[in-house]
Each structure stands twice: as C-alpha cells, then as structure tokens.
Amino acid sequence: MCCRMFVVLNKLITTAMFEQAVVLECFLPYLVNSDATGLNEQGLQQVDTYLNGYRYVNHIDSPFYAKCEITGLRGMCVEIELVED
Asked: Where are the beta strands (DSSP E) in the chain?
C-alpha cells in the first residue's frame, strides 16, 4: 500500500506543471485575495484575459524592475507561478 501511495503522489507531482510569469505588483492583491479595489475595469479585464485557463499558485516576494507580461508596461514586478486550471 505504501508503494502505491508513492506512485500516485509522484504522478500528481509530475503532472502539475507550473508556468512562471512576470507581473506588476499591483496585480498581487487580486491574484492572492481576489481584491480588485486597486484595479480599474481595464486592468481587471487584462488580468482575467491573461489568466484564462490558469490559476495563481504562488509568488516570489522580491520585486524587480521589468516588463509586465499582462500589460506590457515596465514597472516594479514580481514573479508568479501559475498552474493549468
């Protein structure tokens, strides 16, 4: 039984493929807590369109200056991990 559980767990771990993306820090409250108070309608629509078919999993708390993959704008960004929904 122990070996069967390991095989099942191993299969679950290997099939969950994470995608990484770089997004502006302003999107984090929405991704983490579904808090859209800091976003206007355009920003909300952009993030929803970008996440189509993906779900937020985690982020790395080390902001850096880069180009956001959602908006195409440069600013303080964080790296996030997404998984297929």
From this structure: 18-24, 54-67, 74-84
